[in-house]
Specification:
Its cofactor is Fe(2+). By secondary structure, this protein is of the alpha+beta class. The chain is 42% helix and 20% strand. It contains 15 helices and 22 strands. The protein starts with 5 loop residues before the first strand and ends in a 5-residue tail after the last helix. The structure holds threonylcarbamoyladenylate (TXA) and fe (ii) ion (FE2).
């Protein structure tokens, strides 16, 4: 393989046309941002801006360098705005052909991660990638940057920008909201975390129609939105058993978000990293650096295959430049062992015949949001446990509830993973069928969260910390997918056990067939952590 020399990288997925040269370090970096005269980013206008700025940006970045030393052209192949991507793609192809050097199609999200790893010197982080268009929690697993959780509607930056615009503030709104928030005290606004995923549009609409002083709304917006991101990051960290957190993407410039992540990391004993300001938002250096790494790994693209992809996902890229870390050891959200467990969210302890589950205060959250979430979730969990019981799903009896704790019956018996007989697993299928039939999703359906009760051999469902109400096929499918994954990792004869589970599930739930079909689809998508 030829020794790569200098790589020219071009970024232009959205607002910033930026190019850089990377050798052993960033040798030059030039940008020409597009700022919309009014409103948000118009894709075609941005593309026109990029087209007219290209010549200038490329020649500035090449100043003092010999084009003959360039050994590859890297460009953002996606995701991003179609017209912008096409403009930059065309320029990159032309440069590659005229210089006679390879073309490297870089995934923009992967590039955000790689420049962060390179600049901060971290190795295997859980990444919070919070930008205008994307909000994702990523981690490296089995040769890919897997998406552990992500926004179900719009990107966080986008939500901030749109809210700002509705209050008459110019684009981009993120930095101005940060300024206002410093002067305000947070109002209560919606907080939406669904398992590992987030949603921002409800929060944005509530903020738009909130009549409190702008400073207070901005502070409330930040507190809710950032705490949501930190919560999912913490959950991924706990599940994956990693000990580094990296923050990337434009919203990562925000001091309050950094402070909250840092505080969460300190509480968990993890290290927190964030790259310099100029490398955190969109920039050409991240494309040039990733291009270099990819060229070294032989990951170039022919002109014919270099079409841009506006919805290119990070997990579509096979990462040949990192050592495969293989499967994750499976960890449940609340690892219950020997009567004491500290999950991402709660502390579970045993006192004789009782189990006490206490939700923990998080220093990263504002005190009012913290108290609100703790009491809402404690109440919701207790309610779902009782509702499940009434629907014929064996669950622990609840003895007492306080603002942060649930005192419940201790179920004596073995965890299902220690008692994987066909009969037991079939019974598990039956109770999960009843649960789904009642419109309840468990949210963390592992073989550790089902106990085979000693006195009658019945399966009892525990730990409803991530449970929620839903009749969506997708949520039900994810529940089963998680269960089958843990079954696979604990039992050699998992096919037989899986069949037994399905038999039980079909017995008690009329829509079983449709859900089981979806499970197969989910497995093929390979998105979920378990
Ligand atoms: C596909 C690509 O084009 C896209 N890039 C992108 O969105 O640009 P980026 O530079 O990563 O992020 C811009 C966002 O970052 C926000 N932002 C910048 N400074 C901020 C601050 N101090 N506080 C909060 N948000 C901030 C802006 O409001 C804007 O929404 C992406 O990565 O999703
Ligand atoms: Fe970006």
């Amino acid at each position: 393989m030829p020794e790569p020399g200098l790589i020219l990288g071009i970024e232009g997925t959205a607002w910033n046309l930026s190019a850089a040269i990377f050798g052993e370090d960033v040798l030059s970096l030039h940008s020409k941002p597009y700022s919309p005269p009014t409103g948000g980013i118009h894709p075609r206008e941005a593309a026109q801006h990029h087209a007219s700025a290209l010549k200038d940006v490329i020649s500035k970045v090449l100043e003092g360098h010999n084009p003959a030393d360039i050994s590859g052209i890297a460009f953002s192949q996606g995701p991003g705005l179609g017209p912008c991507l096409r403009t930059v793609g065309t320029a990159a192809r032309a440069l590659s052909l005229s210089l006679g050097v390879p073309l490297i199609g870089v995934n923009h999200c992967v590039a955000h991660v790689e420049i962060g790893r390179w600049q901060c010197g971290c190795d295997d982080p859980i990444v919070l990638y919070a930008s205008g268009a994307n909000t994702q929690v990523l981690g490296f697993l089995k040769s890919r940057y897997r998406i552990f959780g992500e926004t179900l509607d719009i990107g966080l930056g986008n939500a901030l920008d749109k809210f700002a615009r509705s209050k008459g503030l110019p684009h981009p709104g993120g930095p101005l909201i940060e300024k206002y928030a410093l002067e305000g005290s947070p109002v209560d606004l919606p907080y939406t975390v669904k398992g590992m995923d987030l949603a921002f549009s409800g929060l944005m609409s509530a903020a738009k129609s909130c009549n409190a002083p702008i400073e207070d709304v901005c502070a409330g917006f930040q507190e809710s939105a950032f705490a949501m991101c930190v919560e999912v990051t913490e959950r991924a960290l706990a599940h994956a058993g990693k000990n580094e957190v990296l923050l990337v993407g434009g919203v990562g410039a925000n001091t309050r978000l950094r402070e909250m992540l840092k505080s969460m990391c300190e509480e968990r004993g993890a290290e927190f990293f964030v790259p310099e300001r100029r490398y955190i938002g969109d920039n050409g250096a991240m494309i040039a650096l990733t291009g270099k790494i990819m060229l070294e790994a032989g990951q170039t693209v022919s002109v014919r295959d270099s079409a841009v992809n506006p919805s290119f996902r990070s997990d579509e890229v096979e990462v040949l430049w990192r050592k495969d870390t293989g499967d994750l050891p499976y960890r449940s959200a609340n690892m219950l062992s020997d009567g004491f467990a500290r999950g991402a969210e709660a502390l579970v302890s045993e006192r004789g015949d009782y189990v006490i589950k206490k939700r923990l205060s998080k220093r990263y959250r504002s005190p009012s949001l913290d108290q609100r979430l703790i009491s809402e979730r404690t109440k919701a969990e207790a309610r779902l446990i009782s509702l499940s019981r009434r629907s014929g799903v064996p669950t622990p009896v609840i003895y007492d509830i306080t603002h942060d704790s649930i005192v419940m019956e201790k179920i004596n018996g073995l965890m299902l993973k220690q008692s994987l007989t066909v009969e037991d697993v079939m019974d598990a299928g039956r109770i999960v069928g009843r649960l789904h039939n009642a419109g309840i999703i468990h949210g963390d359906l592992t073989t550790s969260n089902i106990i085979v009760r000693e006195y009658d051999g019945r399966c009892v469902l525990i730990d409803f910390g991530l449970a929620f109400i839903s009749s969506e096929i997708e949520s039900r499918g994810v529940d089963l997918h998680v269960f089958f994954q843990t079954l696979e990792s604990t039992a050699p004869d998992h096919n037989e056990l899986r069949d037994a589970f399905c038999t039980g599930y079909k017995e008690s739930f009329a829509e079983a067939a449709e859900v089981l079909e979806r499970v197969e689809e989910i497995r093929l998508r390979g998105r979920y952590l378990h």
